[in-house]
Amino acid sequence: MERFAQLFSALDATTRTGEKTAALAAYFREAPEPDRLWTVALLSGRRPKRAVTATRLAEWAADRAGLPGWLFDESYAVTGDLAETIALILPPAGAPQARSLSDWIGLILTLSAQAEPERRAAVLAAWDALDGTERFLFNKLITGGFRMGVARGLMVRALAQATGIEEPDLAHRLMGDWTPERTTWAGLILTNDPGADLTRPYPFCLAHPLEAEPATLGDPSDWAADWKWDGIRGQAVLRGGRFSLWSRGEDLVTDRFPELAELADRLPQGTVVDGEILAFRDGRPLPFAALQTRIGRKTVTKKQLAEAPVVLMAYDLLEAEGRDLRGEPFDTRRAGLEALAAAMPGGTPFRLSPLIPFADWPALAAARAGAAGEAAEGVMVKRRGSPYHTGRKRGDWWKWKLDPMSFDAVMVYAQAGHGRRANLYTDFTFALWDGDVLVPVTKAYSGLTDAEFNEITAWVRRHTLERFGPVRRVAPDLVFEIAFEGIQESSRHKSGIALRFPRMARWRRDKPAAEADTIDTARDLLRARGP
Amino acid sequence: MPFAQSAGKRPPITWACDQILCNRDQYRPPSGRRAPPSLPATGPYLLRMAREPVLSFTDRGIYCAAGDFHIDPWRPVDRAIVTHAHSDHARSGMRRYLATPRTIAAMRHRLGPIAAEPLPHGEARRIGGATVSLHPAGHVPGSAQVRVEVGGEVWVVSGDYKTVPDGLSEPFEPVPCHAFISECTFGLPVFRWAPEAEIRADLNRWWAECAASGRTALVGAYSLGKAQRILAALDPSVGPILTHGAVEAMTEVLRGEGLALPATEHLVPGMTAKTHPGAILVAPPSALGSPWARRFGPVSDAFASGWMRLRGIRRRRAVDRGFVMSDHADWEGLTTAIRATGAERVFVTHGYTAPFRRWLEDQGYDAGIVTTDWQGDEAEETEVTE
Ligand SMILES: [Zn+2]
Ligand SMILES: [Zn+2]
Q1: Which residues of A touch B383 (CB under 8 A)?
Q2: CB contact under 8 A, B311 and A81
Q3: A397 lies in the same domain as A410
Q4: Are A231 and A361 contained in the same domain?
Q5: Does residue A148 lie in a domain region?
Q6: ipTM of the modeled complex
Q7: Which end of chain A is more exposed for a tag (fewer CB within 10 A), N or C?
């Protein structure tokens, strides 16, 4: 595990892509093959299942460290990370052991079959065998929440550097349904034939946000546009009679959306379609919140199926008659997709994402302004002559989202952050005026610079009116522009509205609290841009 | 705004007794986590419980009515006793100061000419109705705890402290007392420091690695205390030790106060990685990532603070290396120090006060929180400002 901990620390210590890639590539050259394979698995989201509940782990650790539960919880509130809290409060390792990553994972995999006393003994022994980062990583693995902050593209690049295999080929080999327990480094990376697997999806083509004026893209006739849907990116694969549905997180989600299984009868064999899984009823997409009720549930109830039925909103055709079309121009793939959609009987949960006609860029800008009316987040702009790229390649696919909405609100509560911001006040509650009363409308905790957070932290300490545990009510003096992507009605919030992705866009030092916006501003936005 | 919050729902401690006989021979520091604290004694004497508390908490700072002085005040007062020269404890504008000679030297460097009277560690001074003495706090060179005795009752203000010797500061001494006002910057059990020898070895290994790979090592450290602790830890055989102006100036002041520190060279324009290969630069945290550092050539930067124990904060600082090196006590240090005072009354300030107070109360102490204006130099150290 030491070599893996070294890799983890190296990745953790830098934000430079080049350094991360070099550290990973070195690891893929040097580490034992089973460890490399597990690392690829971990970096592509294939984590061992949670072997012990968080509650038990916390109990065992507090007990071992001789601390009361509430003090463990206070510590957890500061680090914001269970695995780290446990690693830090436990006494130093009494009987250190040097075992490999795959060795430890092997131990973790045996845990779920064990009775609790044995499981506890095994975990305590591991804690006593590991120190520092290794103990932290063991905890991460055991809690099933392991993330290393390495983008997929970066991992593939490092693998390519280490093996000499081309990136797109590697990316394809890594797609689909595999686990380190059923394959080997050689089988997955070196001698893998992607075509042999009937369920394997293609790596998704990803868009860059369009920050510049669209006119910088050149001649509008070179471009096609469609709506940017607010659902789950998905790929439907039908080969040799097997239907599989993949989400972009590379989860096999076939069973979560049983209504889409009908596509197995409707699509021709050897077809792969890229699109958006969207909750859709009465001819119209439902807000993302409706789809959220379907995410994370393994079994779907009748009620959910009736309230939030989904469709595949198709926008690209990646394979037809068993042939990989990704190298064909967008227009050609689109023609194939349209033909496929035309042959589809009515009522099939399959819709063609319509192209937005536009003669010039101002016309597209006008269409984009009406995106909310289509329940879309904006528009996608795709070069007509472009292939279907692997991953995020700049230049051919752009997402041009609606500008965020915003209002100016007053800070009323502050709470210390955790993790990166453990010693700063960073989590704030903001309120809008309703007459002469401030009504809390949203929380936000990002968007400011560290220097601003420092300044606000010092201010909060001096302007606390009341304390409720970790929360402080502060003097209602500071005004912030709150930006957000969506707004909808909510019975759960006192203000009656809920925001999507709220953040602090700006500290309005120029504005006194009395000049902050009123709740009517929010209600107007709800009418104009709400679902 | 209330400045002293009482100890929660517990009834206040009974100070009703008029006289208690204390005897030094009966005093034994309590051992074991749950042992109830016993009453300390500094000699066989009659202890008269004061009607007024020895120290009170005002909006200028901690105040002793019997001696008419403040401890580490944050607003101008007539007489200030200063625990140490960090900017949150030693402020300008007091009519006269009392502190250890080293603290006075550092204060004069920072604040300019001030009227200050030196009081060496361990010497008692009568001020009005109070007897005052300063005792090593182990925080930075010259730092002190303030012991105040009035009518036989003893209160101690810890200032900032650490219990493990750093090889440079006068080592922390537990001072028996009835009431202890303790900082608790790192008052959570996630904070545990490695032994100094281990930290020193890590630091020198990193420097040697940097030197071997052609990068200059740059370590960010607060210019009073942390910087000299790092200098004392460095192995001069690895390469030249260069300092930023702020660090060099404070180091000179402390050399003048008799501290033995390795030779350093003040970094001036024209010096680069070429003229000084394998060098380490010691600079205030604000210099990390600044043009000042880049001018020198390719650097690998590091930051030394107790906060580096937390991964989130290490990542926020985004330095190449984080050394867990603090001039404050860790959890073990705090709890041991408090136990060793034998105090039954403890006020906490500066840090994770709420959970720490609760823990003390669970252990049987009469514990309260004091709100002070001491910002905590470690808190500043995680930021880019000094
Ligand atoms: Zn200090
Ligand atoms: Zn301080």
Answers
A1: 450-451, 454
A2: yes
A3: no
A4: yes
A5: no
A6: 0.83
A7: C
The CATH number of the domain holding residue A43 is: 1.10.3260.10
> Does the distance separating the beta carbons of A420 and B313 come in below 8 Å?
yes
Determine the residue type at A430.
Answer: F
- One digit per residue, the tens of pLDDT, for chain A of length 531 reads 999 999 999 888 877 889 899 999 999 999 999 999 999 999 988 888 888 999 999 999 999 999 999 999 999 988 888 999 999 999 999 999 999 999 999 999 999 899 999 999 999 999 999 999 999 999 999 987 777 778 888 999 999 999 999 888 888 888 888 889 889 998 888 887 766 778 889 999 999 999 888 999 999 999 999 999 989 999 999 998 889 998 887 678 888 899 999 999 999 999 999 999 999 998 889 888 788 778 767 778 888 888 899 999 999 999 999 999 999 999 999 999 999 999 998 889 999 999 999 999 999 999 998 888 888 989 999 999 999 998 888 899 999 998 888 999 999 999 888 777 777 888 999 999 988 889 999 999 888 888 888 899 989 988 888 777 678 889 999 999 999 988 888 877 778 888 988 999 999 988 889 889 999 889 888 887 776
**A371, A401, A431: which is the final residue of a domain?**
A401
Chain A residues at the B interface, defined by Cβ less than 8 Å, are: 12-15, 65-68, 70-71, 74-75, 78-81, 84-85, 88-89, 136, 418-423, 450-451, 454, 458, 469-470
Examine the domain organization and report whether A344 and A457 are in the same domain.
no
Q: Please, are residues B109 and B253 in contact by the beta-carbon 8 Å criterion?
A: yes
Choose the final residue of a domain: A375, A401, A427: A401
**Which of A65, A71, A419 is opposite residue B359, by nearest beta carbon?**
A71
Question: Rounded to an integer, what distance in angstroms lies between the CA atom of residue A180 and that of residue B318?
Answer: 33
A363 and A234 within one domain: yes
Ligand nearest to the CA of B226: 1
Q: Are residues A434 and A447 in the same domain?
A: yes
The structural domain count of chain A equals: 3
* Residues with Cβ–ion distance below 5 A, ligand 1: B 86, 160, 377
Considering only CA atoms, which of A10, A49, A53 is closest in space to residue A31?
A: A10
| Integer Cα distance of A256 and A287 in angstroms | 18
Contact A85 B188 (CB under 8 A): no
Strand order in the sheet with B56-57: B56-57, B62-64, B69-71, B79-81, B96-99, B116-118
Of B189, B319, B362, the CB nearest to A65: B189
Q: Are the C-beta atoms of residues A106 and A119 closer than 8 Å to each other?
A: no
Q: Do A422 and B310 touch (CB under 8 A)?
A: yes
Neighbours of ion ligand 2 (CB under 5 A): B 88, 160, 374
Residue A342 lies in a domain: yes
Are the Cβ atoms of A78 and B310 closer than 8 angstroms?
A: yes
Write out the residue range of the structural domain in which residue A414 sits.
405-529
Same domain, A228 and A370: yes
Chain B residues closer than 8 Å to A450 by CB: 316, 383-384
